[in-house]
Design a protein that fits this description.
The protein contains eight helices and seven strands. It has 269 residues and is α/β, with parallel strands linked by helices. The chain has one domain (9-254): Rossmann fold. Helix 1 crosses helix 8.
């Protein structure tokens, strides 16, 4: 089986910055037709506007995917540009601090809306399009489509100050499994990548502000380093390709072994 995604059409959300941008750029470099999608249209224009004007396999769409109409418009824009959709990468994600004891802390609701529901609605809409495409094709030997969600090892760890993010990541994992079973009969595969520390722009900023974080992260990671964004992108490419043709409903952990450690700490009183 091939890892190639050349000629396939992918939507990548959260593609104006960070890991979403890294994944979308990687896919474009691998020859896929990529729709870069994000709520921040100005940032999209800044990052890929010039490339989109020159490269046929790069396009971008700005809009709030928490809105149902925006989801429909994104699908229409992708079909207008490339005639089909083969891959969806739900990489739009947000992390907020949480006060677990504050009744008016809205972080759980906000992150479920951003990290779970927007991806769920887009996955459902894209899946319907993939099913319609497959009904017109004779090739039943390969996947009719692939959906890859970005999750986090926070789903498996307990950090009260990240409670909302952890809950949303756990929900994304369960959404992945549920959609995988629901869409298996249609030959659509659904998987997720749960990542640990990846050298994104936000992590770079945090490390600059707190120099001890780099050594702390390395010390809690058996492989002793922080991942490069391309390493995460390559894992997403694998799950999107025919090389993963018999993988569905899986949460692929890319964390350098971090979740293998049992970091015991006494709770603060």
């Amino acid at each position: 089986m091939s890892y190639s995604i050349e000629g396939r059409t992918a939507i990548v959300t959260g593609a104006a910055h960070g890991l979403g941008l890294a994944i979308a750029r990687h896919f474009a470099d691998q020859g896929a037709n990529v729709m870069f999608a994000d709520i921040d249209e100005a940032r999209l224009e800044q990052e890929v506007g010039a490339e989109a004007a020159k490269e046929d396999n790069i396009n971008y769409f700005g809009g709030d995917l928490r809105q149902k109409l925006t989801v429909a418009n994104l699908l229409s824009a992708t079909i207008d540009a490339y005639d089909r959709i083969d891959i969806l990468v739900n990489a739009a994600r947000q992390c907020l601090p949480t006060d677990p004891l504050a009744a008016d802390d809205g972080s759980v609701e906000e992150l479920l809306q951003q990290n779970l529901f927007s991806g769920l609605r887009l996955s459902q809409a894209v899946a319907r399009r993939m099913i319609a495409q497959a009904e017109k094709e004779d090739n039943t030997d390969r996947s009719a489509g692939a959906i890859v969600n970005l999750s986090s090892i926070a789903a498996q760890r307990t950090q009260p100050q990240l409670m909302a993010y952890s809950i949303s990541a756990a929900a994304v994992d369960q959404m992945t499994r549920s959609l995988a079973v629901a869409l298996a009969a249609h030959r659509i595969r659904v998987n997720a990548v749960a990542f640990g520390s990846v050298m994104s722009a936000s992590l770079q900023t945090q490390i600059r502000e707190n120099a001890d974080w780099r050594s702390d992260i390395r010390g809690h990671t058996p492989l002793g380093r922080i991942a490069a964004p391309d390493e995460l992108a390559e894992a997403v490419q694998f799950l999107s390709s025919e090389a993963a043709s018999f993988l569905t409903g899986q949460i692929l952990t890319v964390d350098g072994g971090r979740t293998l450690l049992d970091a015991v700490a006494a709770p603060a009183h």
